[in-house]
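for the record, two folds in this file. i put them one after another cuz i was lazy. first one right below, seq on top, structure tokens after. the second one comes after a little note so u can tell where it starts
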Amino acid sequence: MSVVFSRSDPMANAQISAEGEEHFFIPGPRPGMRLFLRRLGASSGASKRSVLYVHGATFPSALSIAYRFDGRSWRDALCDAGFNVWGLDFYGFGHSDRYPEMSQPADANPPLCLAADATEQLAAAVQFILDHEGEGALSLITHSWGSMPAGLFAAAHPTLVDRLVMFAPLACREGPRYVPRPTAPAWKIVTIQDQWKRFVEDVPEHEPPVLSREHFTAWAEAYLDSDAASRSRGLPAVMTPTGPLVEILRAWHGELAWEPSKVDAPVAIIRGGWDGLVTDDDARWLFDRLSRARERRDVKIARGTHLMHLEEMRGALWRESIAFLLGDEPDPASQYPTPASASSSKTKGETPMQDHHETKDLPGYNPGSPEVAKSPISMNELKELMASTFFTDEDVVYLRLSYDILKDQAEELVMVWRGIIALHHHLARYSEDVNTGEPDKDYGERVGKRFAQWVLDTARAKYDQEWLDYQYEIGLRHHRAKKNQTDNAHTAPHIAGRDLIAFSAATVSPMRPYLEKGGHSADVVNKMYDAWWKSMILQVTLWSQPYMIPGDF
């Protein structure tokens, strides 16, 4: 059977289709049956690597990684980060061929699309993708049950998997005794009401919804589109293989379809705080069982359920997955344990949060350069300082979530802060030319641009050695040790330590209205605001080092 290639979207849905998207129908492991793959290339045109999305138990790639809420999808974010993004539909889902058994009575056959079967399909897709891209390995993003075939594949083909993001993966639980092994008919029918009930069941009472009914209604129409016969049934519904659902139940009866200890690739577990299918105990079991993984991380995101990729906190999920997948530099959240998530082993990652607002050509902005002083405190001491401020993985998540909100407002925030400074002469005098008594405009312009960049750097939340050294450099540039040297200015030669520390309150206090512009709930805004406070206290503490008597810091 040959490969069929198309640039037209079989769904022709504005929430799914994208300019430049490619579609492939490739031979699968079953003779005469085709698998469907969708591809969207990296936005920059210069791809870093490829990533394949492995869907969960009830809906295909188009309804998950490729589906756009408010004009943007997880796939879009990955493409913007430099990935070629692929999505696979397993047999019986989306645009892949249906099992012949799905045209027979459900009770006539055992569950379809169990993990062992799906792993063979995944292997066919991976080999096609690697051949198409000319690459030797790719990364995988899985949702829910998708972790099972992906885990089997990663264990069997360790050289083909670069990094593995497991979003809401199922763990093994000790099941009840004397209960028959879970099974089911070959397929089942899933209605829109079934999906809605599942989507909202984990949101606590009296909490505002995390998925709007308007968003769900549009999504539901696309869901029905994934099965050509869905609207011909008495109650519109999608026919779905039951293998994935059966294996979830079997995992909760002590029979997980894959063995996590056989996986060597770096793994990130990312889950929602309200996910009733992936509890803290589940995540801890899986994290500990991934004993051979070269790197491990467990990230729990507040206000997220098992369907977080369709919910309010989806942006945080996108950011955390991309940060882990890029994996080029130390990731901050891996360097300290938190009460909210399982402890992480040493992890590498990078947050791809650079856009047209940022440039490495800002005068005087030179983190990582030889001119930047090395911080006198170690990374271990930074960890202790973070613990003192009660700064956790969750704060990293909310800082990163604030990036997209603040990136278009950074300059405006700088104007607000400068307005506060202008109201108080004891602060304004630090930017005045000592010879003329007038504001040094060139100095002010350079510092202002670096101040706006500082907003983005704080929201990036990348706490590595380069960041630590630059905090010390910032402190030195406020102190007589280096004040004015960076800009060859003639302003006050020293900023009083009391003003440096006190102004941190004036920096964070006005930020709430700007954070609210992201359209998030009050609870999410509060968490972003709290994270900014903690980060500000952490940074101003580091800036104060040059003001301390040696040995006292």
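(here's the note) second protein begins now
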Amino acid sequence: MIRTIQIVNNQYIPKFFIRYMLIYLADLCYFHDWDNIQPLPLNIGYVAAYLKNKHPEVSIELFKDPIKLKNRISEKSPDVLAISHYEWNSNLNLAILKHMKQKNADTVTVMGGPNFNAVDLDWLQNFFQERPNLDAYIYGEGEWSFTRFVELLQGNDKKLSNIPFEELPGSVFFFDKRLNKIINNPRNFVERLNLTDHPSPYLTGILDSFLADPHLAPIIETNRGCPYACTFCNWGNATQEKINQFSLETVKEEVKYICENSRNLTGFLYVADANFGILRRDLEIAKTMRDCTDKYNFPQHAYIYFAKNTNEVIINIAATLKTVTSMSMSKQTMNQETLVNIKRKNIPIEQYDVLREKCHEKGIETYCELIYGLAGESYQSFVNGVKQTARNDIRIAMYAHSILYGTEASTKQYREKFGIKTAYRVIPRYISSNNDLLTLEYEEVVIETNDFSREDFFRVRFFQFLFYIFTSEIFLELSHALSINGSDYVTLIEHILDDKENWTPKLEKLFNDFSQSARDELIANKKVEFAREDIKKARIHNKQLNPFYMSKIVTDTELISDFKSYMLGSINRFFGSEITHTGLNELKQTVKFAFDKMVNYEKLDSGKTVLYDYDISSWLDSQEKLPLENFHVPKSVEYIFKLDDYILSALEKVGNYTDDLTSVIYRLRTNEMGPTGDKIFCYKRYGRKMQSGTQTALSNEEIESRKISKREANRRHVEIAQRST
């Protein structure tokens, strides 16, 4: 039997090799045709690198693709199957665990990750009872705990029940079916890892095969820990408050290695830090990333969670990376009472405005996240926060408060204190597209609190749909004109919400159908096992409602006409008492711009030309926010509207799946295009001046395409943040 010497501060020296041990590590996800930004499995890469460093003799195989793992299990059973556990792969894991136990009941199955409530015994018992094929769960940092767990298994005939209780790390939980109780030894507290000498899963080559996969995006972690205790987030819970740093030299070498070796089709890089920019050295890391972009053309896009309290150091970092990323200016809410309830503190609004202006001066695209359904937030306070943020010209990622296990908000006490009630809904992105694995995932969303009624939830849901429409590229000019005239798109949305008696019949049907769908998508209880018919129905009926109903608009000629007429007829009614006659005409002109840009798939033109008497591009680019009339031109400008060729080719491909045009466009938007898919609703537009039979460039296609691409990149960050619903 293999034993180890005494453990001191998580350090130990094994006396014997771990012989004849085969371990499968998996970080599973749902793959789709369009999805080229799934993060590669860095988490299990760290576990593998650490375990291999301690025990080079152990055999480890890593998996991201659930079908590959399922097939490998069928070929050869491992001694241990360990899987990362998150909201987005929970049921997928269950299907794999079931397959594993059917093939070999003796394989020890383990899960790990932050999506776990380690303090509620009732929750823990229910968790394990729902997962009869799960043997153990490891909570917190996984490297040391999993290595120790494997050693204990090896030293006790590979049987969990043989491990002496006093030797169990405090991070290990399992359910003893015979005793009907949770087994955990909290006295064996597991210290945080010293990351300075942590072996790199990149530099050791462990992740090479995943870097070579064009559909997987690399992800890098430069530090661990979060000093904040936000009640809705479990980031800090997994690693506690103190920030531990990986070696700076290792991080820089990893960045270079990734950028030289990644074959990701989109040039995408994730930074896994909770607060990038919180350390002064992060500027040096950012410069290394920028140098790699210059040298390797990678990353082309980076998704980064910047430090919560924005300051000039962070702005300098964002400026260094402004060609590849947008900067998140963290908020979550503008309501002071809610900030107290969620244990957050925003920077003073005056400081926020100064920093925002500095970002704009440096050409940094910014966005922030606002969450509805937080404790203490009412419908009106949330909308007021959206309006205040919109008037600061910051793009908003808006989404519902989703309950994550392991967060304070998920506890019984917190729910009872703030009257939190929830429901489940299927996450459309996480429905299996492969009939060999019949699974899907749910999210648990807050639909009611002491200050936020269920009807408020549905009203915000409808507000969010209109927000999706009017913050799209289609209505860019209208939003700009509203700002110039002292208003904003949130005020417009509020007017439309309160204007039901003037909705046209087709608009009323669209809006009512959306609202009903928002109600229908909620369910009281979730399932953990699924029949083929369940998945078939889910694929048909569970949609991302915002893009689905936008797809309904652009596939109905009469609805487009109705919508345009309604908007033109509503401007005076909505804004007549607060905007000048010239300003009202300007708003109407931008409404016409919008509907010229909107693609009509029922009468599709791959390209068209329209004459305008305005230099629209110069108007949008002007820093002075001058009226549109100031950009009137003496001779009409010919504007060219085009759809990208690849959109047309993708449309032809998707058209083979169904004859329903709305379903075709929705599939094109969500399954083919992914987070940059809104471009399918809107023509690219660029102009040239007509002069005496000759054409002089006003704003050429390349310049306009670059501007649009920059806005698309910002929208991509927003959509990834909010998982568009």
